[in-house]
UniProtKB/TrEMBL annotation:
InterPro entries: P-loop_NTPase. This is ATP-binding cassette domain-containing protein. It comes from Propioniciclava soli.
Length: 237
């Protein structure tokens, strides 16, 4: 069962580096069992914000809570209560794996075991009425199918919220709307997504929206994960 009845609350949440402000200060509430959408231009800190709300970014100030969990003081617990479907250039599907191999690898990484992972993956496909060929290689899938697969794999274990970066990347509007329909079906099972997208993109139905302002300086605009990488938590420590 996923945690229910707990809102994610950010108050004055901010990330700055010697190269400039990445995002914030942010005040935002994600109600229980609700999808979220983080919107902004390139360089506005969308990816960093998604890492922050999953306990995978150091150097934050302000407040971040999920129910009684203090996300800044207990980042390890926040990582366990959340899941990452995709963070562009940091967390993505391995292109050389088959769908079956990707599902097994993800289940092992999540600590739920291959057998439980396979059962969960099959049930998730049934729920959205979309079945992947187990032998299909990830790099042969369309952009829509790769995004959908990443979303399903992140649902293999219970999580309070799942983040999906650049949800609108390479998708047409009809494909994005179809993806959101699948997310709504997954939502009935208790899976809430927080996606990032450009300001002009369609949104999930009833989403709690956060608008990140454009970077204020040229230094902030050029900020890359090359600068952020020492602060990003990519594995358990």
């Amino acid at each position: 069962m996923t945690p229910e009845g707990q809102a994610l609350v950010a108050q004055g949440l901010e990330l700055t580096t010697p190269h400039g402000r990445v995002f914030g200060p942010v005040d935002w509430v994600l109600p229980p069992r609700t999808h979220g959408a983080v919107l902004g231009v390139q360089g506005s800190g969308r990816s960093a914000f998604l890492l922050a709300i999953t306990g995978r970014m150091r150097g934050l100030t302000g407040t971040l809570r999920v129910g009684d969990l203090d996300g800044l003081r207990q980042p390890r617990l926040l990582r366990h209560r959340s899941a990452v479907a995709r963070i562009t250039d940091l967390v993505e599907l391995e292109p050389d794996l088959t769908v079956a191999e990707a599902a097994d690898e993800h289940a092992l990484a999540d600590g739920i075991g291959v057998r439980r992972g396979r059962e969960s993956f099959m049930a998730l496909q049934e729920a959205i009425d979309h079945h992947f060929a187990p032998s299909a290689r990830v790099d042969t899938l369309s952009a829509y199918e790769r995004t959908l697969l990443a979303a399903l794999l992140a649902c293999q274990r219970p999580a309070h919220h799942i983040v999906l970066d650049d949800v609108d990347d390479a998708l047409t509007v009809p494909q994005l709307q179809e993806l959101y329909r699948a997310m709504d079906l997954l939502g009935t099972l208790g899976h809430s997504f927080v996606v990032s997208a450009l300001e002009s993109s369609p949104l999930p139905r009833g989403a709690a929206v956060l608008h990140l302002p454009p970077p204020q300086t040229r230094e902030a605009l050029s900020l890359s994960f090359g600068h952020l990488r020492p602060r990003v938590i990519t594995q358990e420590s």
